[in-house]
Structures are given as structure tokens and as C-alpha cells.
Amino acid sequence: MNQAVSPDLLEQASGSAGNTKAPVLKSAQQGAARYRDYRFDPTRDEKVSVYQPSQAGLVFPGIPSFDNHADHRQYLKERLVGACRAFALQNFDYGFAGHLTVRDPEHPHLYWTNPMGVHFSQVKVSNLILADHEGNVVEGDYAINQAGFVLHGAVHEAHPDIVAMCHAHTVYGTAFASLGRPLDQISQDTAVFFEDHVVIAEEGGQVAVEVKAGHNVAAAFKGVKAAIHQNHGLLTASRHSIEAAAFWFIALERCCKQQLMIEATGIKPKLVPEDRSRYSREHVGSEYIGWLHFQTIWGQLLATQPDMFD
User: Fold this and answer.
1) Architecture of domain 31-309 in this structure
2) CA-CA distance, 258 to 243, in Å (whole number)?
3) Helix, coil or strand: residue 159
């Protein structure tokens, strides 16, 4: 098995005879467990959204800070698994297609991703893999998805600020992608993507297994959180968290479904004016809001799928 490259994890494991993996994982799991239901405290945490309460003592999700890489890494791995399980709940699976990634907090040239050939519902902390921008697996037992490496590796390498990315072959997103055009502003839901998504026409429909395909996708992710790859499907990226990337992917698929349903009526919809779309995006389309939306899913997963921490 390829072992971890993290010096602090290796240091924790030193002195343990024979098997070094079990003590490391146990320690990391115990350290990160206290962050699974972390709560916002207005007397301690900076307020970044109108949705965060000013009154102390209320239950509201928060984003923890970390004093060591081990706890932070475990936290990110658990949230990546949560994103995969969320995709399973949404029925985003299509064979082995689909890949989600989050950048390692200590080694930014490496990223964690779901293993090749494992259903989203069966992804867990113990079967995640760690890869570099060249597609080499440096930790984990499973192989990497070649298309996933080509797309995600290129984006992570070209944009150091992007910490997470999601892609899956969904029904409505793939169907809408065949139109080769951006979303119309039909509602507040689509407004979150106003001036914040692009259409990528290059190599549309051609499976992305060659490195140059990844470069074309990476070039499109300048200052946007989502892309519609023509004749292929949807991609989202986040400069905030894997939770934001995952939720905005779910939202983008939902918007594609809504627009296809409207177009099927043959009736031209009333569009949201640009100024209102921009206003809505600024208030409910931020990275933080995407993260916050995902917390409802995270709570459901905590209550129903404890095996994701295995």
C-alpha cells in the first residue's frame, strides 16, 4: 500500500512496531471527531453572512479552525466522503464516471479523491486516495480515474486558489450541456450562477483522457464556480470548500432540470432582470452560502451513515 506523505502523521506513527497505519488513523479520527458538529458562536467567530445569528447560544453550523494538519486533513477527508455520499443520495452515479477532489491542507500539490470503481455510496475515509498533479497515487490502495486526473489535476495545478472540484455524469446536466449555452435567468435558483458559470465548447463530447483536454477546462475556471462542458456535463469548483463545490453542483443540476422542464412547455418564461439576478447572486450565491446549504445534507449523513468514517 502507498503510505501517507505527511511528516506529522508519520511522526505520530513513529515508535509503533509493525503496523503504523492503525494508530495514525485512530489518532486523526479522534482528533477530528469533535469538529463534525462544530457550531458558530457570534462571540468567537467572525460573521460573514446575514444568515449567521447575532444572538449567542443558538444552534447554527460553524467552520472550525485547526492547529495541526492531521486534524484538518481528517476533517477534509470526512467532508469529501460526505460529498460523495450526497451525490449518491442525488442518484448522480453512472458506473465509474464521476470524481470529486479536495486539496490537501499541508501539501497543496496533492489532492484527495474518490477511488476508481467504487460507488459514491460506498466511498469512505479509508478508501480515499491521495494523488499528485501527474496522476500518481501517493497514498491509498485504489487506482485513480484517468479522466478525473486529467480534469481535476489540471484545474488544481492551474488554479492554486481552487481547493475542491466536482464532476459527475448527471441526467439533466448532460442533457442541457448538449445545447451548448448558459443557463437563462428563470429564477432565484439560477441567479446564483449569473455571471458565475461558463460554457466550454472545446472538445465537447470527446472523453477527457488526454492531458490537453484538462488544460482547456482549467483555462475556463477563471473567477467562476461552475462550467457546462458541451456534450459532456457539469463541473463545479470552489475556492472555499468541498461542501460548497458539492452543493453548487447539486444546485446546477437542479437548475438544468428546471430549464429543460420549462422549455418542454414551449412557453417563453419571464426572465429575472440582470440587476435582480446579480443582487440575488451576491446574497445567496457565495461560496459560504454553498457551504451552508450543504450542512443540511451533512446533518442527514451524520444521522444515517456512520460507516462513512470507517
Assistant:
1) 3-Layer(aba) Sandwich (3.40)
2) 23
3) coil
